[in-house]
Amino acid sequence: MIINNETDYGTPASLSANLVTLEIDGRKVTVPEGTSVMRAAGETGINIPKLCATDSLDPFGSCRMCLVQIEGARGYPASCTTPVAEGMKVCTQNEKLANIRRGIAELYISDHPLDCLTCSANGDCELQDTVGAVGLREVRYGYEGENHLDAAKDGSNPYFSFDPAKCIVCSRCVRACEETQGTYALTIDGRGFDSKVSPSQNQAFMDSECVSCGACVQACPTATLMEKSVIDHGLPEHSVITTCAYCGVGCSFRAEMKGEQVIRMVPDKNGQANHGHSCVKGRFAFGYATHKDRITTPMIRDNISDAWQEVSWEEAIEFAAEKLKQLQAKYGRDSIGGITSSRCTNEETYLVQKLVRAGFGNNNVDTCARVCHSPTGYGLKSTFGESSGTQNFDSVKKSDVILVIGANPTDGHPVFGSMMKRRLREGAKLIVADPRTIDLVKSPHVQADYHLKLRPGTNVALVTALAHVIVTEDLADEKFVSERCDTESFAKWKTFVAKPENSPEAMAEVTGVPADAIRGAARLYATGGNGAIYYGLGVTEHSQGSTTVIGIANLAMATGNIGRDGVGVNPLRGQNNVQGSCDMGSFPHEFVGYRHVSDTKTRALFESAWKVELQSEPGLRIPNMFSAAIDGSFKGLYIQGEDIAQSDPDIQHVHHALRQMECIIVQDLFLNETAKFAHVFLPGSSFLEKNGTFTNAERRISPVRKVMTPLGGKEDWEVTQDLANAVGYPMNYKHPSEIMDEIARLTPQFAGVSYAKIEAMGSIQWPCNDEFPEGTPTMHADHFVRGQGRFMLTEYVPTDEKASRKYPLLLTTGRILSQYNVGAQTRRTDNVAWHEEDRLEIHPHDAEELGINDADWVGIKSRAGETVLRALISERVQPGVVYTTFHFPHSGANVITTDNSDWATNCPEYKVTAVHVAKVSEPSRWQKQYQDFSDKQETLLKDRIVAHEHE
Amino acid sequence: MTRVFISRDATALSLGAEQVVQTLQQQATARNLPLEIVRNGSRGMFWLEPLVEVETATGRVAYGPVQASDITGLLDAGLLEGSGHPLYQGDIEALPYFKNQKRLTFARVGITDPVSFDDYVQHDGYRGLKNALKLSPQEIVKQVTDSGLRGRGGAAFPTGIKWNTVLNAPSEQKYIVCNADEGDSGTFSDRMIMEGDPFVLIEGMTIAGLAVGATRGYIYLRVEYPHAHAALNEAIASAYRNGYLGDNISGSGKAFHLEVRLGAGAYICGEETSLLESLEGKRGLVRFKPPLPAIVGLFGQPTVVNNVISLASVPIILDKGADYYRDYGMGRSRGTLPLQLAGNIKHPGLFEVAFGMTLRELLYDYGGGCANGRPIRAVQVGGPLGAYLPEAQFDTPLDYEAFTGISAVLGHGGIVVHDDTVDMAEMARYAMEFCVEESCGKCTPCRIGSVRGVEVIERIVQGTQRDQNTRLLRDLCDTMTYGSLCAMGGMTPIPVISALNYFPEDFGIKSDVDAA
What we know:
The complex is a heterodimer of chains A (951) and B (516).
Chain A: E1 19-24, E2 27-32, H1 37-43, E3 69-70, E4 89-91, H2 95-109, H3 126-134, E5 160-162, H4 172-181, E6 186-189, E7 196-199, H5 215-219, E8 225-227, H6 228-233, E9 238-243, E10 252-258, E11 261-267, H7 280-284, E12 299-300, E13 309-310, H8 313-331, E14 336-340, H9 346-360, E15 365-367, H10 374-383, E16 401-405, H11 409-412, H12 414-425, E17 429-433, E18 442-443, E19 446-447, E20 450-452, H13 459-472, H14 478-484, H15 487-498, H16 504-511, H17 515-527, E21 531-535, H18 537-540, H19 545-558, E22 569-571, H20 578-583, E23 590-591, E24 595-596, H21 600-610, H22 622-631, E25 636-640, H23 644-647, H24 651-659, E26 663-668, E27 680-683, E28 692-695, E29 700-704, H25 716-727, H26 736-746, H27 755-761, E30 764-765, E31 809-814, E32 839-842, H28 844-850, E33 857-861, E34 866-873, E35 881-885, H29 893-896, E36 913-919, H30 925-942
Parallel strand pairs in A: 1-4, 14-15, 14-25, 16-17, 16-21, 17-20, 21-22, 25-26, 26-27, 31-35, 32-34
Antiparallel strand pairs in A: 1-2, 3-4, 5-8, 6-7, 9-10, 10-11, 12-13, 12-27, 18-19, 23-24, 28-29, 29-30, 31-36, 32-35, 33-34, 33-36
Chain B: E1 2-6, H1 10-14, H2 17-30, E2 35-38, E3 52-56, E4 59-63, H3 71-77, E5 88-90, H4 96-99, H5 117-122, H6 127-134, H7 137-147, H8 159-168, E6 175-180, H9 189-196, H10 198-212, E7 216-221, H11 226-241, E8 257-262, H12 272-279, E9 303-307, H13 308-312, H14 314-320, H15 322-326, E10 329-330, E11 333-334, E12 336-343, E13 349-354, H16 359-366, E14 376-381, E15 388-390, H17 400-405, E16 414-419, H18 424-438, H19 444-447, H20 449-462, H21 466-483, H22 487-491, H23 493-502, H24 512-515
Parallel strand pairs in B: 1-2, 6-7, 6-9, 7-8, 12-16
Antiparallel strand pairs in B: 1-3, 3-4, 4-5, 10-11, 12-13, 14-15, 14-16
Helix pairs in contact in B: 6-10, 6-14, 7-8, 7-10, 9-10, 9-11, 18-20, 18-23, 20-21, 21-23
């Protein structure tokens, strides 16, 4: 590729420790056993022509371009499929080989369009390069013979086109779909000359099982599968490595640019989280960054019924600062606060909490992690001593038993989902605990050994029952426990879980999972080799979310599945920087690095560094802010990159609270739902417009690099800094690297982190300090962070949300592959082609009883509120359970969710709401009211008073 | 009760054997003649099929070819007593065509009831297995190695060496796979033995299982062989019933399970690696080697993949010893080869003989020349990927190395005869077209090369830039020979180049000097 100087070695690297020395074209080369001759040649700088080989895929041996001669071997073996052997002598270039290669090239070109100069891959085509390299000068067959040049193009996918006329049938796309992505949507249909790439059953890409991950496009050596953006704009001219701003996998991408325009996002082969793979969001859904809805001029207004007024940055900042100061003067120091974003960088998040603590002078800072992974922080900190997952993603390659609880990796964390599926295809065992039949339960060549299809809200019962089996059947790793854990807590825990009421048989009634399935799963996890647990919001977003996290940690400790490759406890983080925003001291009770604000020593450290006095009492959590607003004691809020008016539960309550406030400052890309209640709008910058770092679910700090000028003129951290200065707390950072330097100075886990080191290593997994200068892929390797692992009791307390006569069904919520979170980004891309509305999944049995047909409008009513969605009849959900996503604001999924929350952290119980479902003919009252409000706010935006051009 | 033998072999059936059986049964009933019709395998003399053999006090007496309409006359003439009739052939085994064969592998075919376990045992069946059960795996492999048996599917790889590789490959589960996807035109020996003596294949596979430590076997049978399918399934069921398949073979405590899987009509699935793909339920796509199937075969496990005849030759080796078998043949080609005569030949059929007989002897002394009396111009040996041999090469002995020496292949032993009206350019074009039809499409030389091959030959024949296109055809054949992934594309040039070299005039080329 023109802008990609990465060498493609043709076949994957061998991991063997045994070395083999051979001779290629007279050069001695030593490589690991199992390396292909092709790769060995590549590593010594000898390029053997190839077309079907690429180092992300297993060798295939079909193009026959890479034939070589090997002393003593018959014929002309393909170098991609021939492993090296000690003393082997290989010749890669001679007249005979040249003739064979030219002969093959001649055949290829006899069935290929001759439109190189106008082809979208011109300059980025392996066929072009290879045919050039072998010196083909003439196609003696002519071009009149049988060919595929009239094959029809398939443009059905919004992001890439499929032009079979240009296909050389190398099967790289098919193999990428299988090996890299694991979807098996592509195949070769027909045989011989009729062979052609076929999405599913010879369907168009959009009608097929294709999930648009882009692996096929990435693998294609010609223009057959090509990004439409390249077809439209031509090839990029430079590229910048950066980090995806979607989910917590944190994929590394090459932003390929033409000037300041992103032409395409290409997954980075050297990305340590994603190893060159991507999903439909990161790979293609970046168009929101330049969407016409972007607001790029600051706006202010006194009341939310007023039209917006565009103003200069200075005016907006001044307006906001004045309001905040007035509020504090009038209602007290604690009457204002801030919310940091898990979508913004570490540096930006750090700055917002610093502004609140040092500038506002209180601890009223919280983050959206409150509503997703706060129980992870609590649970893992209490048991292991650190609020983070224990592994890197690559660890899954060594897992023998994978236990997935309340997570849907193939939708929520697709790139890691593919990595997991690859391991499962290699034979690892799988246990899925989920009320729904998620894709992992059964997908091509993957099938769960156990699907524990529990009732929503019964995680603790299930996890404790698993522990019961491990303890009572003597499956615990007593040696590990006695060496590494607090044995007193273990003894107590053993007695507790062994109680008959915690047995699978007793819990079967609660969970709805047959006892023998629980027993089988427990035995498998405890005795099946390396056991790894992956969990998501299906664990945390419950009234007992923290308890389940603790229960999971107990399971891992009891079975010795902690502290090495292949095992561990792994929270799959929802947003790109959930881990980072938590790390950065976004919670009201913790400074950076999870140190409590009441700790005098820590506070002294920050007071001296920040040169202010700091509060010793925790501030308000998000739900407390809403209550305080309704009480009238909380009046001002600075919200960076977070849409609480859509994403938080019991949304009518939230809206009511927001209306009570006097100054809401929203910093965002778009006029999101929260901004409709705001008084100041500060244009945000997308991940393409700023520098910084994101920390993914494996604690990996990766660089975010600016590839275009911020549309609003400022990077987000600059805006926070301006606001700090305006409220009277001086900040003067020249670059985010200085913010990271400050974080490193003040935080033990980050002491060794710097931009220079990130630049050199690509990314760093914290802790990174004197003890772990290169970072820490696996935590708790020799000892737990807290010293000894602590077992804690996990008494099952049923949630108040129970199916009743009035509300007979249980609603649980989740997300879908093509959309992201509240959808602010993905709804402004062509991803809507896959998911244009949220629907209510309902089991055919329930639908039949309620007289509901597929696509009917159904009203969903809980004790909190009512909304209307279209039904989707599906056996993914079990009878008695309904499910929806929350990607569209007018769906009102959070009108229904209640104010129930986790006992320890107030993480809302999104995953269980008792509801009543009935066929209806019109939107709910809330929906109509909100539509009116929203329309009015859109009008106030449209009618905004435009800023004077006085600069 | 007189026993009458009428074949259930597909050739006999296609020539009317079923009607003969029905008519004979009806008339015997009507005439109140006590009669038992045994449905045996074919003797392999197709010009005499449907063949009716009658068991008499002095031995079997044969009549053929018999049609249903002949039955009345035959019965009137005293068929059941072995009396004279225009169709009377006497003792079939005394006919030179049969007498001069060396029937080791086909010893029972045409004699026994193919699906009768008792018949099989009475005719020396399962003696090889009995011996094998007394030997260690290494000793069984040694017997096969010492016998000199080479793969009869065409590649002629030493069977013992292959078995030894599988024996030494550590694995919990190994497999024996029988390649019964007999797709070469003009070949039928696999079919004949599966229809005529399926137990010998079952026994051979069981011995193979004991030899390498495989407890499971599959016969990958082409779907076009319904009669073989029926015979195999009957015999397998019988072997299970009699304790010769299952978890405790013949009381030895050793296990071997066997089942038949049907192909789906693709020639390429006769190639061993695509056969394995197909057997695994995938598209029949050729795998690259290494790894060899012997190391990474079916479902990724060490696997013996052998042709039907290779496996069916094993019981006699274990019965009579390696030396007995090795004493037949010449050079490095040991034992016997069941040759199959087809095409324009007077006496088509199966002819099992020790390696070494010349092609001429076979074609004229036993085959009797062309069926229509015209001179033989060319024969294709070894299936559609085999060379066309001109009359000048007919003295070549039937021996792997001798054939290699003239750029030909003995292959699976199929011989298709053409008279002097054959258009060899058309044959060459057909060879390419066959490849177009049957290529799996994985590798480029085969996938695109075969299509271009047809086009180029057509241009040569039309006289379009004949010299340039002839050169191009030779270059293309070079690319296919050296560049193809498997023998399909790699051997397609053999019939093409042989036709071009020995029959240039059919391409409109004046002499072979022009052609070269």
